[in-house]
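Quarterly update, task 2.4: 6-phosphogluconic acid-bound model.
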Amino acid sequence: MGIYRSKIIVASHINHLAEKGAEIFHGAALDSTMRQSCFAVALSGGSSPRLMYRTLSKEPYLSGIPWQKIHIFWVDERCVPVSNTASNYSAVKKDLLNTVPIPLNHIHPMPGEAPPEKGALQYQHELMNFFQLENGQFPVFDLIFLGMGADGHTASLFPGHEVLEEKEQMIVTVKGGDPYVNRLTMTFPVLNHARNVVFLVSGREKAETVKTIFEKKHAVLPAGRVKPEKGELIWLLDSEAASLLAESH
Ligand code: 6PG
């Protein structure tokens, strides 16, 4: 039995959602770097977290976060050139990494330009080296930020896809999503070994799916399968995404 705990935070507005996400990042970074030499965080693509990335690039986070000790990874990547606007790495670079004083060798983009299978293996090796893992072990990220699509996908783990059942690999390839391209994605075992996982979800079009995940637990959507075994899960929702949830949640 794990000690998995979860909570929901509802933000009144998307600016508030971004601010809340930045506060969580800041708090977790301070907490980890007091106990250990670095803070390993994995970030998502999509549009919802972009305001949070821009918030983190400004004060008080710009000087309040120990950027020299932060290591940035990605939960998924679209297999496109970095110059493509669909590149998850490029979005974070533009919104955050170009501004904050983070050492270049602390930035660990997924190799989206490599042939997908090769890229998946390469990133898996990078995780094994960074976390000093032996075969069969999984990394323990200090924090993972996830988004969710209206179909219930998270990272590039799409409903009905066979990679949802992956138990051994840390990184797999998959084709899907919007844009419909090859992708690299972390698997559930990686997400569920993290210390903290935060879903950042906004918009009315996600409200029905949020309700399904919380109220119809038999309809197992990919996002509903993220349950960090020994960690904490936070659902950070704006009021539109939370609009169909009953008061009791
Ligand atoms: C990706 C993702 C994906 C994303 C959701 C939500 O690279 O496509 O990481 O899982 O987080 O699709 O995206 P939006 O925030 O744009 O709705």
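Highlight for this quarter: The pocket of 6-phosphogluconic acid is lined by residues 44-48, 76, 88, 147-149, 153-155, 177 (CB under 6 Å).
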